[in-house]
Amino acid sequence: MPDASFADLGGECDLWERWRKHGEPHARARLLDLHLPHAQEIAASLFHERSHDDIPFEDYRQISYLGLLEALDRFDASPDAGFGEFAADRIRDAIRDTVLRASQHHDLLAAVDPAAHFVACGPHPAPSVPDALQLRHMHEHLQDLVEALPVRQRSVIQGRYVHEQSFVQLAREMDITRNRISQLHSKALVRLRLELSRCRMCSQGRR
Fold first, then answer.
1. Which of 57, 147, 156, 169 has the most CB atoms in a 10 Å sphere around its CB?
2. What CATH number does the domain containing 63 carry?
3. Does a structural domain hold residue 68?
4. CB of 92 within 8 A of CB of 71?
5. How many CB atoms lie within 10 A of CB 182?
6. pLDDT in tens, 76-91
7. What global pTM score does this model have?
8. Residue of 196 and 169 predicted with greater confidence
């Protein structure tokens, strides 16, 4: 939690006024410093509760920082109304959402774009804040691309990579042959690769 002595002196209220009314970067940075320890406590708590080791602790810390940034920029009530609780909810949601997406898309990303998967999940130092944000956007974009697939292709991809069903289970569920499931799976991966490649080229063209 923020430094009590600082808050007692009205310092935090003054920072909020300077940030929200005048947009002072120094005031925003000081507010981040005040609340960052609590954000990192939340990251440590959720990391301790994790069910798998796919995501390193430093990623939890980086996502908690992003959640705190989002909370700071979106909070529009008086600090007395409970910024700490508001920020905590944002931070928990950001971490849980990112962890869930990463878990669901881990194998799919490896199948669609092995190079991107290595950058995101391979043996390397923990990502910086921009890298963590890029990873979050990549997962969101991949999810959007899956949702845009033709119905049967989407069902196969979601069944295989989200629900971890085998081709045999999917064939039985969809009442088609295993070979047909394999064809749909291959077509979906090709489509996803093309869309990711197209989006990457568009992104580079805007730089």
1. 156
2. 1.10.1740.10
3. yes
4. no
5. 14
6. 866 666 888 999 999 9
7. 0.54
8. 169
Give the dihedral sign, CA 188/105/127/15: positive
Range of the domain at 49: 4-104
Do 120 and 137 contact (CB within 8 A), yes or no?
no
Q: What is the 8-class DSSP label of residue 33?
A: H
Domain tally for the chain? 1
- Look at the block and give the residue holding tokens 């081709």: 167
pLDDT tens column, 135-146:
666 767 788 889
User: pLDDT (tens digit, 9 = 90+) per residue, 36-78?
Assistant: 999 999 999 999 988 766 677 888 898 999 999 999 988 886 6
Is the distance from CB of 199 to CB of 191 less than 8 angstroms? no
Structure tokens at 125: 């130092």
Give 113: exposed, middle or buried? Use CB within 10 Å, 0-12, 13-18, 19+.
buried
Tell me what pLDDT residue 133 has: 59
| DSSP assignments along 78-127, one per residue | -GGGTHHHHHHHHHHHHHHHHHHHHHHHHHHHHHH-HHHHHHHHSSSPPP
C-alpha torsion angle, residues 150, 204, 119, 29 (rounded to 10)? -110
Query: How far is Cα of residue 201 from the mean position of the Cα atoms in its chain?
Result: 22
